[in-house]
Amino acid sequence: MTHVHDDASRRAVHASSGNRRGAAHPHQEGPTDLRLVPPALAAWATAALALDASPAWVTGVAFAALVAGLVLLPARRRGRVGGGGRAPSRPPTHPEAPPTPAHPSRASWPRASLAALLLSIAAAAASAGLHGADLRRGPVPELAQQYASATAEVEVGSDPRLTRPRISGDHAAPVSVLIEAEVRRVEQTDGTVVETRAPVLLIVDPGSSAGGPEHSLWLGLLPSARLRVTARLAPSLTSGDRVAAVLRVRNQPVPEVVGKPSGAQRFAGRLRAGLREATDGLPADARALLPGLVVGDTARITPELDEAFKETDLAHTLAVSGSNLTILLALLIGPPGLAQRVERRGLAPRLGISLRATALLGGVLTLGFVVVCRPDPSVLRAAACGAVALLALATGRRRSLIPALATAVLLLVLYDPWLARSYGFLLSVLATGALLTLAPRWCETLRRHRVPPRLAEAVAAAAAAQALCAPVVAVLSARVSLVAVPCNLLAELAVAPATVLGFAALATAPVLMPVAKVLAWGASWPAGWIADVARTGAALPGEGVDWPGSWTGALLLAVAVAVLVLVGRRLLRHPWLCGVCGLLLLLVVVEPAPLTRVITGWPPPDWRFAMCDVGQGDATVLAAGKGTGVVVDAGPDPKLVDACLRTLGITRIPLVVLTHFHADHVAGLPGVLRGRSVGAIETTSFEEPADQAEFVRRAAAERHIPITRAVAGEQRRAGPLSWQVLWPPPEPAPDQDGPNDASVTLLVRTAGLRLLLLGDLEPPAQQELLRSPAAPLLGGVDVLKVAHHGSAYQDPDLIRRVAPRLALISCGEDNPYGHPAPGTVAALRSMGAVVLRTDLDGALAVGGEGAGLRVTRD
User: Collapsing DSSP states into helix, strand and coil, what is residue 588?
Assistant: First the structure.
């Protein structure tokens, strides 16, 4: 009985502190106040335009808007006293009716709104002009135009991050460390020191760090630390960037720290490092994903997992969006559904904390959230919205959340005009606006059609956010996801528990690491669920469609979405039509193999050998039974080879043969291994380039796949498929002209067909092959996988000896190497071979038996 009384009294204390300021019910606040929306949008547009405009233009706009705004400001109307000095009486109101808010006169309201609009434009132009001047002020821009070298003192402004591996031809571009920073001091060549402030981007060669680039000491730097670097300056390659220069730092494996980071950043760094330590023993996905979900630390996210999140439009979960702060504030002040009420159900009323103390605690929590998660655009937007809402809570004046969002946008753009050009900030504002405007209406519509309330709320929120954000996402990715809404719905089930447990682990790690590890283990289950949702959605054959990646394409998509919404509202009146449309969409996304084969004819039912279209690279598949295939090379892109294998229906791979370690043959290996059972990986013994050989070893070790070495004379079989390794010879190997001449060469027999796969063998190795014990086996070949993408470097004697009926060339469209060489194609055709190439013919599948050889194009 005492417990009930205490609980009721605590709620009474919490409510009483705000009851003096009006009724609690949100419907008594009147219509939504949109007066701040035009000034916010005007400030946003002005800032975006003024950042790189001329100083004269910016000054003129700011001055003209300021003067016009001051002129239009309405004078304060003083009430006239008449009739005995008494103010005019107001008509009586019903005792239970809410007080009628005082409104400005009809004449002064438009005038005040226009004045606010003009003053916002003036302020945004002035702020953007000052920030844009940082790119032109001081010696840094001049040194960048001269591509000069200089010694500078810089202040770190962001967490260092590694660039994603990029494939350039047959090599992977070196991985670099990227750091956003600000130059504070520059030493001139004559020894003079110039103080300045210029935003720059540091591109650091991590050097030969023990354990690879991911263990570089540069990655341990914290924001606000000061460094001394010697670098070559260059202009930014992209106009409109927040960068006065690019500083390329080489031959400096250890950063020279001349100033320690601030106390707040050191504390935040300890928290983030503690969370990483607490997640060290978790499964790979949870270990990588949990720090990203909690504090936006994506250092462990693999390119393959990152791509899956982007394809399913779940990348916002790794950007520390406002939902993270919303979850934390909901624990304190109650669920979002009660945001406009005094009575709340969070921890604060249960602990007897007053409204104003609750607002103070929320402000401290918001500030700590920004420091720990770093001031990214979405974090700043969430923090600003939260601050406005907390101010309303503290004063008892509960405002609509639309003005709160408009206020947040206005203040943030004035504080940091570069946010006006941030896609992340734009997406964050659009998603929040969708949740505040479209989602409630759509939820009500779904509930009227007998959809359960919680499901209606979740579907409406996901669909509304996707509808407004999809055009912008299409500009960034040139693609529209068809699985974004269901994937977001499924992931949302796990975001809250993963976030709460993750923040609990973050807070306890510095003092009680065992407890933090237990909490992290609990958070690993929902984090793993989110990763599985992303991977499953990205693995669906029809998960997305290509779309023009331009603002014209965005406009077309916006029109298409509007039409779809209008049609959808009518379809809701006919449940059976909704079911038919849902079934059709499901078939488009899943693309069942039997149905796809009937419609497209790909892949042919009796295919024996397939050459995937993976651009400038090699990836081929040998059929070894239903759903089973031997993969020879993986191409340069995991996404492309994964899509090819899914189309072919390959789920089991007894062996992956990597002919050599050039990136255009091995970089796609994660796509081959994704979601498939792989027995072993076989490679050449010549492990060059070393970084790609290490990449293959690491990928195999993560999945516990054994690696073997191919050697001439080896023979294997898998189902109806058999093959023999013809090259390279056993040790000691002859002098090899680089990795190409160490390529694994296979002679394959299947269904009465003989196939010769030459990898990237160059003429020296081709001539050695003709003199090897395998030479008698080279004649009478039905299908030849032409060496080195059909380059001009072919031995004519080998072509004459092989004399294939069908020659297949894997190469990329408009590649810079001129592959295939016209002379090579002509030589093959002169031998009577039919020549097909992936850059013109797409993916190719060989079927039939013996004389019935045939090839099908995708």
Answer: helix
